[in-house]
Structure formats: structure tokens, C-alpha cells
Design brief:
Elements lengths: L1 H23 L6 H14 L2 H27 L18 H32 L12 H27 L28 H18 L4 H17 L18 H11 L10 H6 L3 H17 L1
Helix pairs in contact: 1-5, 3-4, 3-7, 4-6, 5-6, 5-7
Length: 295
């Protein structure tokens, strides 16, 4: 009972904090155009069409848009200094292979998952109307961060399980075919691997969703994060690095290079708690010492 009460107090306090911060933030200048576009969409398409095909089209657009820079960086000599594993570059043939596997996963795994979420929103009467849509800051300060914590927790423990020597070669090994990751490789995986790990994404949405548009916001946030940590580049002034405890590309790049440790998807705390970042920390210290010697 005491624990339950403490959790309720924490959630209430967090909600009040979000509301307070929101009261200090300006109104979204694009609110009126967004409102007109949203209402026009609802007037011309069914809720099922909006949630299913709208989400799938958004997924494909965001995936291609944010994977493209990492693909183009290999042709820009200036960007090589930001590449983490500078001596490893996947061939265009391998990237084409990656794209074919990803296309299968998108249509045969992720599209059915999105259809399932569409049925969820309708069955539980999740609101679609503009009037009940939370203010824009809610998605950033409460919704996405809360979902990221849930997904990251699921990802850490299930990802670590998939690395167990008895099952690794049957499922998760496919994702590690590329030692130097690149953006689109974020979703290059065995179908069962993708299904297991993306259950965390679905679980977070189901637990925290209070409006249909949140699927689009959470989908975009999660996809950008996944592509970023697989980008293979450590770009200065990356706005995602402003997120507290954000793991980033170096953290996950080491996981692909080392195959063990750094199992979390977004944050660093689970790896710190269980010591699964020890090899990464030792490697980082070693590289810092080498850099000082060469200066």
C-alpha cells in the first residue's frame, strides 16, 4: 500500500511539474494550421485509415528521411572525422541487402503491429478529436519520456536475453552482421527479433496513450532515436544528446563492435546498474589516453 501511494504521489507530482512548465511555454504558432489539417483529415478518412495507413506512411517517411544523411555522409570526406569506426565502411551491395530485409520487416512485421494498435485505439475509445488533444509540450515532457523509459527497460532485459549463447545465433546474430552500424540498419533484424524488441514500443504506447495522435509522436521519437544510435557517426551539437542519460551513437556503436554490453536502447542507467557498460568504459578511457599521447 505504501509503495502504491508513493507511486501515485510521484505520478501526480510529475504531472503537476509538466503542467507548470507548460504554463511557462509559449503557444505553438502552428497550432491553427495543424488544427485545420487534423480536422480535414478526420473528415475525409476513417479512424482506422488514419491510424493504420497514416502511421505506416509516417514510419516510412521518417525512416527514409533520417537514414538518408548517414548514407550520404560516406560520400562526404569532411564527415569522416565524425565516423566512429573510421576504417569500416559497408559496401553498397551490403546496404542493398539490408534494405531488402528491412522492406520485408516493414510490410510483414511492423504494418500488422500498427494495425493492431489501430484496433486498440478504437476498442478502448481513445479520442481522436482536436479538442481533447494534449498540448504540444505534453508529448515531449511527459509522454515520450515516459514511453522511452518503459521501452528502454523492456529493450535492455530482452536484448540482453537475446545475447544468451544458447539463442543468440538463431535470432539476434542477424542484426550483428554489420560490425559498423549505419542508420537504416536499425531495423535490420530477424523477424522474431524485431517482434520481441518492438513489443516494448507497443507496451509503452498501450500504457500511456490518451490520444490517437500520440502514436505518431511516439513513433517519430522512437524511430529517430533508433536511427541515431545506429548512425555510426558522433555528430557535434546533436540535440538528442541534451536528453538526460541519453546513450547516443558511441554507446551503441561499441555494442556492435564488441557484441556484448551496452544493451539499452535509449538511456544508460540499466547498463550502469548491472555493470554491462564496464568494457565500454574501459575502452573509452583507453581511447582518451591514446588521443592525449598523439596530441
Amino acid at each position: 500500500m505504501a509503495t502504491s501511494g508513493s507511486v501515485s504521489i510521484f505520478i501526480s507530482s510529475a504531472s503537476l511539474a509538466v503542467e507548470y512548465v507548460g504554463s511557462l511555454l509559449p503557444e505553438n504558432p502552428l497550432q491553427e494550421p495543424f488544427k485545420n489539417a487534423w480536422n480535414c483529415m478526420l473528415n475525409n478518412y476513417t479512424k482506422s485509415q488514419v491510424t493504420t495507413w497514416g502511421s505506416f506512411i509516417l514510419h516510412e517517411a521518417v525512416f527514409l528521411l533520417f537514414s538518408l544523411p548517414g548514407f550520404l555522409f560516406q560520400f562526404i570526406p569532411y564527415m569522416k572525422k565524425y565516423k566512429i569506426q573510421k576504417n569500416k565502411q559497408e559496401s553498397l551491395e551490403n546496404k542493398w541487402k539490408c534494405l531488402k530485409v528491412i522492406s520485408f520487416n516493414h510490410f510483414c512485421i511492423q504494418l500488422p503491429l500498427i494495425c493492431g494498435l489501430s484496433y486498440f485505439t478504437e476498442y478502448f475509445n481513445i479520442p481522436y478529436d482536436w479538442e481533447r488533444m494534449p498540448r504540444w509540450y505534453y508529448f515531449h515532457l511527459k509522454g515520450c519520456f515516459g514511453c522511452a523509459v518503459i521501452e528502454d527497460t523492456w529493450h535492455y532485459f530482452l536484448h540482453r536475453l537475446l545475447h544468451h549463447k544458447r539463442i543468440y545465433k538463431y535470432i539476434h546474430k542477424i542484426h550483428h552482421e554489420f560490425e559498423a552500424p549505419f542508420g537504416m540498419e536499425a531495423e535490420y533484424a530477424h523477424p522474431l527479433d524485431l517482434l520481441i524488441l518492438e513489443t516494448g514500443f507497443v507496451l509503452a504506447f498501450v500504457l500511456l496513450c490518451d490520444h490517437a495522435v500520440f502514436l505518431w509522436v511516439w513513433l517519430t521519437f522512437r524511430l529517430i532515436g533508433a536511427i541515431d544510435v545506429h548512425s555510426g557517426y558522433d555528430i557535434p551539437f546533436n540535440p538528442l544528446n541534451l536528453i538526460p542519460f541519453y546513450a547516443g551513437s558511441r554507446h551503441h556503436d561499441f555494442h556492435h563492435m564488441n557484441f556484448t554490453g551496452n544493451y539499452a536502447s535509449t538511456f544508460t542507467w540499466w547498463d550502469r546498474i548491472f555493470g554491462t557498460d564496464s568494457q565500454f568504459n574501459a575502452y573509452t578511457e583507453k581511447m582518451k589516453k591514446l588521443e592525449k599521447k598523439t596530441e
